[in-house]
Amino acid sequence: MNTVRDNSSSSKSFLCITSGSYGEGLEMRGSDFDIMQVIKYIKVNADKQPDSDTSITYLSMDTEDVKPGFTLLRLEYSRIQYDLECCKEHNGERYLMSGVTYTAMANTLLGVALQLFGDMESAGQAFLQSLEIYPDESNNSAAWRLL
Questions:
Q1: What is the DSSP-derived secondary structure letter of residue 10?
Q2: At what angle do helices 120-133 and 100-116 cross, to 10 degrees?
Q3: 3-state SS, residue 2
Q4: In three state form, how does the secondary structure of 105-137 look?
Q5: At 59, is the secondary structure helix, strand, or coil?
Q6: % helix / strand / coil in the chain, to the nearest 5?
Q7: Residue 107: how many CB atoms within 10 A of its CB?
Q8: Is pTM, for the whole model, over 0.85?
Q9: Which terminus of the chain, N or C, has fewer Cβ atoms within 10 Å?
Q10: How do residues 53-80 score in pLDDT, each as one tens digit?
Q11: Residue 45's Cα: distance from chain center in Å?
């Protein structure tokens, strides 16, 4: 069942997968449903050395001075302006930070989850909210989900 859901939510640039306990096949009463969006052109390395594919955006994990279980994602390489705009400078390095685009993305992901559960009306509302927050239809996948 999880594989069917995962396969039904993909495109050239991203893949939505179930994660957490449900994604591992554990369906417990009261358990939540986690969805992870994998952006296919972004790669996260545990070390700082990016590979040599210039079509990929590379991030590295910075786990110093963060709470246990968390990491900062440091931008190592990108030639995509949108990726650069999602990062903020901190201590001379550029880090991926939450902001308007991520709030919009969260609404889009909520819409995807609602679609998976068959609630198309609420999904549509989530997609509209995403576009209201971040109206750039060329960079917000909620736009094509409303078609």
A1: B
A2: 170
A3: helix
A4: HHHHHHHHHHHHCCCHHHHHHHHHHHHHHCCCC
A5: strand
A6: 35, 25, 40
A7: 22
A8: no
A9: C
A10: 888 889 999 888 888 888 889 999 888 8
A11: 16
